[in-house]
Amino acid sequence: MASKRKATQGAVKASRMSRISTPGSVTPRRIESDYSHGPSGLPDQRNTIIAQNVQKLDISSFPYMLSPGIIDSASEYFQPGQKRDLTALKLKPDHHNRPLWIDGWGKLTLENFHPLAPRVQDFLTTIAEPTSRPAFLHEYRLTTHSLYAAVSVGLNPKDIIRTLKLFLKNEMPPNVIAYITHCGKSYGKVKIVLKSNKYFVETADPAVLQMLLKDPEIGPCRVQNAEEITTSVSTMAGLAIAGTKDAADMRVAERVEDQVERNSRVEEVYYAALGEDDDEDDVQDALHAFQIEDEKVGTVAQRCLALLYPALQEYDFRNDYINANLEIDLRPATQIRPYQEQGLSKMFGNGRAKSGIIVLPCGAGKTLVGVTAACTIKKGVVVLATSNMSAIQWKNEFVKWSSINPDNIAIFSSDCKSLFTGNSGIIITTYSMATNSRERAHESANMIKFLQSREWGLMLLDEVHVVPAEMFRSVIGTIKSHAKLGLTATLLREDDKIEDLNFLIGPKLYEANWMELSQQGHIATVQCAEVWCPMSTEFYEEYMKANARNRSLFCVMNPSKFQACQYLINYHENRGDKIIVFSDSVYALEAYARKLMRPYLYGGTGNAERQEILDLFRNSQHCNTLFLSKIGDTSLDLPEATCLIQISSQYGSRRQEAQRLGRILRAKRRSEEGFNAFFYSLVSKDTVEMVFSSRRQAFLADQGYAFKVITHFKNIEKTPDLAFATPEARHELLQKVIAELESKSWKQEEERESAALLADGNLFYGPDGKPSRTAVSGAGDRSAKKIVKRKSGPHSDFFRSLRRENERRKKLA
């Protein structure tokens, strides 16, 4: 097997950048008020304002106008329309000492093999959107949103331009300089801050302050008789992010607090001198502010964007004396990793909590980042999870990593409705429960009233890429939170609504490099392969006759795919791997599992049996393979898994491909020398699966993963008890598939799966294979439970045989 993989037939699918694979830009500020009580999303008028003003700040408004430096027969293929003519941008004499290229359309290319590349990477991820990061060349793009994020963490246009010029091989285009300068005039100039439970509009520019006060729409929003306030700019002084070395040093310092007080005058002189010499960031500039009415926050934010001054929102939590403090800190043994600290430092860079998004691969510790943010702010926390299972995992992670009293953690789901006991605490719920717009039961109505009647210090949004659906805008508006932190591994949506996050949550604060974390051992190194499974003649004939919906069943029930799956399971079980086999088709999932005598889980599996199977997979050497439906795509923690085989999937979903790869990125054995996890995608050759597979892999290719193509396994025909090895067996399988399509019973299984996902609060999928609108709109969990009729006994042949064996042993005993 190993030697065959090295000599696979076909070419390696090179990592590439394409329009399909480029993650959407994520940044400028939400326009809807965090505290608006309106149940609906942004009105059309506001959406129009957003689109018009974001366009004015886009690089397309600053066209590249330089004439070609060289004109020849090939010039027509590189002219401005093609965005490839860079001949007017001269190379610098010492260009070989610099690692970065730029064109006139905001595209940056980094030579990752250059010695100076590590010094440039963090800067580029701060000011630009990563679009492709394979091994040797990284591509980034300057966007409206990325520059907004850069300003939000304290960079100014002069710093950005100066640093780019320092590392660029070629001259910087004048239009790009103008674009960055123009954005800098607007971004970061205005902030809306909630301080002492009052809203203030802040700016360091007196001219901007006067312009806002004189504006016919913003002026009336000012609180009458409230004076203008001039304060100093907040800094990181005195703030340490939980779990870092600074936090440990502060704990040591607190032990000698009495001695410090006795020598306060000497210490003040000492630290003042130290601040002048060593910390220029603590220089305090004047900051002007005026108070606005609470209900006018949305109006002010909308008007600021119309004036081309998009407003940042920050939470001065250290000066919030109204909301009760939460007794929470990281456990002494908990130490966050450098990249986690780097992401959090972008959130707390100026001593306040900025709302935004942190993007980390699956298995890289997103939950710990959220827990650490909560431990730093130390105010009430509301967590929005994707499912009931995910909500329980969040509670377990808070208890595991922090000193929080478990009684101060409440869960609001279809299965559990509890309240915390103290004045402040943590409440964990699901998106579907929080957005339910229908009539609620009495207990649920009280819970949602409790959620909406309090002020929360921090809102954690898990898998934040699901938020932009229209129904979720009400969550942002009706649950009052001072700061919002979105967490995700895949900032992707197939409906291209990812940019809505710019106005709902905030800028992308940090995005980790998958390959870099893999090389450092924080996530597993993965070998990816696409296995082409040829379809027999009679199967292919029926495939061509079927309609588009039914063709997927012929693809997944392909006898060659059965055989490839069996071969890979045998190979990896023999080498000691734990294997997950994914199938979106419940009918195929059951057929494969029964044929190969392995346990399986899907939406219709009872909770008791589900837990029994998961425990067996985690702890038993006799259960090394588990078949999973799409319920395992998210919120399922199986660090024992080291190999993943995908036999069917959700069309061309890039998000699902990345989420499934994430199931093996956290493998426990990742730190072993020479360890590799394995990801196989089984594809029926010459079918629509080939097209979908190429689309699905695009995002992972841009992260640096390369998919090898395997067309044949050596000696597969010698596999013991090979499935469907005879023409008769293949013909019998085909007749079963045809009969199944005619009876349409497989569709009933799909409906049960979708209903079970809905009952669990999982909002990713609906009966049409897309995010469930029913779940999003909050259709009652009770109706979903009525649909799901679960069998009392185990459905898996594996467990039936295990039960029979146990009963036989009891009789013999």
UniProtKB/TrEMBL annotation:
Domain (Helicase ATP-binding): give its ranges.
347-509
**What InterPro entries has UniProt attached to this entry?**
ATP-dep_DNA_Helicase, ERCC3_RAD25_C, Helicase/UvrB_N, Helicase_ATP-bd, Helicase_C-like, P-loop_NTPase, XPB/Ssl2, XPB/Ssl2_N
Annotated SUPFAM superfamilies: P-loop containing nucleoside triphosphate hydrolases (SSF52540)
Q: Where is the composition biased (Basic and acidic residues)?
A: 797-813
Q: Sorted alphabetically, which CDD domains does this protein's record hold?
A: DEXHc_XPB (cd18029), SF2_C_XPB (cd18789)
Its predominant location is nucleus
Q: Where are the stretches annotated Disordered?
A: 1-45, 770-813
Molecular function terms in GO for this entry? 3'-5' DNA helicase activity; ATP binding; DNA binding; hydrolase activity
Keyword Nucleotide-binding annotated: yes
Q: Where in the cell is it found?
A: Nucleus
**Tell me, which GO biological process terms does this entry list?**
nucleotide-excision repair; transcription initiation at RNA polymerase II promoter
Q: Which Gene3D superfamilies match?
A: P-loop containing nucleotide triphosphate hydrolases
Q: Which family does it belong to?
A: Belongs to the helicase family. RAD25/XPB subfamily.
Record's protein name: DNA 3'-5' helicase
